Amino acid sequence: MATCEVCGNDYENAITVTKDGKEHVFDCFECAIHALAPACAHCGCRVIGHGVSEGGAIYCCDACTRHEASSHQHAGSR
After folding, report:
1. Cα angle 22, 34, 24; round to 5
2. Helix or strand or coil: residue 52?
3. Which contiguous run of DSSP H or E holds residue 71?
4. How many domains does the structure of the chain reveal?
5. Contacts with 73 (C-beta within 8 Å, 6 or more apart), sequence order
6. Which domain range does residue 42 map to?
7. Sequence-distant (≥ 6) Cβ neighbours of residue 78 within 8 angstroms
8. Model pLDDT for residues 34-67, shown as the tens digit of each residue
9. Of 11, 37, 65, 71, whose CB neighbour count within 10 A is largest?
10. Is 78 a residue whose pLDDT tops 80?
11. Can you tell me the distance from the alpha carbon of 47 to that of 36, in angstroms, rounded to the nearest whole number?
12. 43 in helix, strand or coil?
């Protein structure tokens, strides 16, 4: 049995994910996503698809990308 590094559950069918040369053990994809998926720079949700990369940040969708760009434009005009 292996222990999930997120929730601590001992599970005989645990999954191992290797990222950046380091192995991680999880009992489910939900825990793997929680630990390894990047968070949207605008809303904070986990990006489990390709997402949108803009200016070095990752966003979950075009709407968050546009909203963040709009926020920066307004902040710069003050």
Report:
1. 20
2. strand
3. helix 62-76
4. 2
5. none
6. 38-78
7. none
8. 999 999 999 999 999 999 999 999 999 999 999 9
9. 65
10. no
11. 10
12. coil
